[in-house]
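Progress report, Aim 2. The chain analyzed during this reporting quarter is listed below.
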Amino acid sequence: MDKISIIAEAGVNHNGDLEKALLLIETAAHAGADYVKFQTFCTEELVSASADLADYQKRNMGDSVSQLEMLKKLEIPLEWYPQLIQHCQDLGIKFLSTGFDRDSVQFLLQFNPDFIKIPSGEVTNFDFLQFVGSCGKRVVLSTGMSTMEEVKAAVRVLIESGMSISDLVILHCHTEYPTEFSDVNLLAMRAIADELGVEVGYSDHTNGIEVSIAAVALGAVLIEKHFTLDKGLEGPDHKASLDQNELNQLVTSIRNVSAAISGTGVKEPTAVERKNILIARRSLFAKRNLSSGDIVSKEDLTALRPGSGISPMSWNILVGKKCKRNIQVGEMLNFDDFE
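Predicted structure tokens for the chain:
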């Protein structure tokens, strides 16, 4: 990717309410995110009636509903999509949605997304991976709950299905909401990059914004982070999401860190820094009065600003030289003053 991309993950935080979905788009656009992303799925194609809630979902939702009942209420009706996409276009932010099944991905392809997002739960879904790899699109693969061997196996399926490795970004991820900092294992992101030779990013489920910023410093080209209109809303993901102010801070911080780590990597003064060299550095000055013919000793010299004279790095070169003229204490020295 040409720059670090930021996905503001609205996910299912619309709570089945179109107005909330539109407000989420506005919030992400105002923050300056590159994408706002939702989730597209047919509940019956995703979970069975016996599927239990995850522990974090039970904490947030209670355990009186099944996963199927919870997700059914969070499906985005197909008739919403034109309005959501138009709202994104009006506000200058790109629309994305994660498809969780073949039909959902096929539906989303009509909107020509920049890439297909594969969620962590589908890393071992062979048929789904094979289909996505054949779509001719860039792919972003989340890898929560995965071993390196599982990630490699998923990549092999994608490549064997027709996708180029250069069109793949792999996101390190930890599937717990929120993720404890001690569980992040952010160096695994670098391990993925090194072992598979791919661009990498981070799908962040921690509280706060620090880990996303650290991931950028470690080479992430894409950051994905959940956000919400209100952490107090009912739903599985609100409590582990950023609020509006935090999302603003995340985007600003990533842009700043991205600028700070760009550059050549060569240690040299920048153009704007050079003007300060004469002001901040020192030159050699006479520490006492010297007469013509005196031999300079170490005690005759001092280093003072500005840096427009002899560099103090030449201190030992002057020691032992003979003065060609009388020099007053406090005078800046020149090589022409000595023989």
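The longest helix spans residues 244-261. The mean pLDDT is 96. These observations will guide the mutagenesis work planned for the next reporting period.
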